Amino acid sequence: MSESPEIPLRTVVLNDEHIGLGGRMVPFSGYSLPVQYPTGIIAEHKWTREHAGLFDVSHMGPSFVVLDGSPASPEAGHAEVAALIEPLVSGDIVGLKPGQLRYTLLLNDEGGTRDDLMVGRSPLFAGSLYVIVNAGTKEADWGHIAAHLGGRAKLTRADNGALLALQGPEAVAVLEAILPGVASLGFMNYGPIEWQGTRLIVSRSGYTGEDGFEILCDAAFASRLWNAILADPRAKPIGLGARDSLRLEAGLPLYGHDLDDTVSPIEAGLNFAVSKRRRGARDFPGAARILTELAGELGRVRVGLFVEGAPAREGAIIVDENGQGIGRVTSGGFSPTLNRAIALGFVHPQHAAPGTQLRVKVRERLQPATVTTLPFVPHRYVRKAAS
Amino acid sequence: MTTIKYTEDHEYIRVEGTTGIVGITDFAQDQLGDIVFVELPEVGRKVKKGDETAVVESVKAASEIYAPASGTITEVNDALTGEPGLINAAAAAAGWIFKLTLDDPTELDALMDDAAYASHIS
Q1: Which domains are assigned to chain A?
Q2: What are phi and psi of A385, to 5 degrees?
Q3: Interface contact flag, B34 A313, Cβ < 8 Å
Q4: What is this structure's pTM?
Q5: How far is Cα A293 from Cα A272, in angstroms, rounded to an integer?
Q6: In this predicted complex, what is the ipTM?
Q7: Chain B residues within 8 A (CB-CB) of chain A?
Q8: What are A192-216's pLDDT values in tens digits?
Q9: Which of A241, A310, A363 has its CB closest to that of B59?
Q10: Do B60 and A363 touch (CB under 8 A)?
Q11: In this structure, which topology does domain B2-120 adopt according to CATH?
């Protein structure tokens, strides 16, 4: 048998820090990253829900799309750059206020999801957007976006530094002590923060369902920032294992699992990410399909399941009361907060009402599963910033 | 006399007379991380060496536990149903998974002893 060619894993800027902390390094989206530290996934998960968890998400794809030349006014500059991006996504980009960040979906012409991403409007510069895409799709996303800028704007990738996430109810107190001013950021807002001679980009956002922040940091300052945060006893390093269990409890989809290029925003239950204005204008990719689905013609929809017994993992078949296969689990595991198995999957809308009794097939055995509202664990975002 | 033997899949079998007590090694529980669910075999089930006999699930994934030797399941560790983390806390003691009566104790000769297992995981 021939050896498959080894694709060398990229290391993150904070690789030495992870190893020094006892992180268990695993391959993830082409990078070597810590799946957990010695305390383990459940302890890390619970720490994040109770205190503040620090994640290295430097494998992700932060980037900037910046208009060429000097726009006549900030509003004109934003309108122009937003008009370049809007035809690719489902969301209202034109309507972003300075410093506002929005979750949106990069769509294909069939209304399937190329990626889910964040797009923000710079609070400082006219005609500049902050665009953060997923690790596994970043090369394709950036190629796709760059190809649609028509020579009027440039896309600059910013994934050579560190992207950190600090999440949990104590995140704001921890970060405010290091970066005074961050507490005044509202949820889904971002801005520059000067720190020790570098400019950080801090957003109030995350992927855990908790209040928290994501911080883009130049490579040269990354370990200093990482260690400054961990010097606070309320903050601990958290690996990708707990990141996954936290986002699952929060009901947040994971691209490549709960979302892919066949899944529409409506099937995924992400109706909020399809702009009201743009529904009227029908001016996003796959609008015909997506608007038909919004009107009620929907073949499948993402649901949350409480699973009795063993966790139902990705790929497990979902079965109705007659034993008929009606869908499959796309993410499943164990909820440390609820101490039970939970899963996300897709079923026909007739089976999607909360309380519907279904079953999942785990190792050829049928286990009861109950459709439940998402999220499994309530979000605790801080919508209004401290004044 | 008690002997402990190990499989390449990181199960241990502690032999007391004609009974074998099976679990996963401390090395294995550390690699798996937090155990959140254990699927136990039925008492009375006859297994052949190498049969999938139990399943141990961590937060991330499910791992099959294979019978280290042929025999009949005589007892399972029901405490794991309520407290699967016993495997993390004490894999070799309170975290045992099942007991079986051995069909053929000479099957164990092919398994690793302490020294061989130590070198297997080093």
Answers
A1: 10-56+160-249 (3.30.1360.120), 61-151 (3.30.70.1400), 299-376 (2.40.30.110)
A2: -75, 160
A3: no
A4: 0.95
A5: 14
A6: 0.90
A7: 33-34, 36-37, 39, 55, 57-62, 88
A8: 999 999 999 999 999 999 999 999 9
A9: A241
A10: no
A11: OB fold (Dihydrolipoamide Acetyltransferase, E2P) (2.40.50)
